[in-house]
Task: inverse folding
């Protein structure tokens, strides 16, 4: 999967998740795997944050004032938004917790609010089976017949740039100028500040990314 395809796919999925005006489609392995990959990225970011011994905030501080790169505080904030913190069964970790097992448990809880199962992980098995056995597997597990059929469409640099702008606007509320994406997109003559880097890190062409 190319970097352009990844950006367009993440834009597509986050639009379904975060935009109330966009009707969510039927579940597919591709969309579910993308959601799962986003949560895997959160796990990897927290692991890196713990390994680098970056400072974390205490719960005495206002989470709305937390540092924007503090991944653990972001997860804590999400946990407080989705569970009852007064429940005797709820022990939300402090942002300075360094126990990765605890963080994985809470990240999984957040993921499971969106994904009721991990059927997307069966795609390789289902696609390798003969049609009759594949159909029997899906029927036995309650998987819709076209769940594994969704594919990733080709994506151009311009489409990736649009997806990048959509993502930043969706997250920050501010839409960046299209040309700041870089990747060879022409910069306006009256622009005084060039893009700091190419989002796709192009050399002679797009670098392929590993499949999910």
Result:
């Amino acid at each position: 999967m190319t970097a352009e395809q990844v950006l367009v796919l993440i834009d597509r999925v986050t639009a379904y998740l975060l935009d109330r005006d966009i009707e969510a489609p039927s579940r597919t392995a591709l969309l579910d795997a993308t959601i799962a990959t986003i949560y895997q990225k959160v796990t990897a970011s927290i692991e890196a944050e713990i390994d680098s011994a970056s400072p974390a905030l205490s719960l005495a501080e206002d989470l709305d004032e937390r540092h924007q790169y503090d991944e653990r505080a972001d997860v804590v904030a999400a946990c407080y938004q989705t569970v009852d913190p007064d429940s005797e069964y709820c022990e939300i970790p402090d942002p300075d917790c360094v126990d990765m097992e605890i963080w994985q448990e809470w990240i999984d809880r957040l993921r499971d609010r969106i994904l009721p199962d991990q059927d997307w992980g069966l795609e390789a098995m289902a696609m390798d089976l003969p049609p009759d056995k594949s159909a029997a597997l899906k029927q036995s597990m309650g998987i819709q017949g076209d769940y594994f059929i969704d594919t990733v469409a080709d994506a151009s640099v311009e489409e990736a740039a649009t997806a990048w702008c959509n993502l930043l606007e969706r997250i920050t509320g501010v839409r960046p100028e299209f040309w700041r994406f870089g990747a060879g997109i022409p910069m306006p003559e009256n622009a005084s500040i060039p893009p700091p880097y190419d989002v796709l890190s192009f050399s002679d062409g797009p670098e392929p990314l590993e499949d999910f």
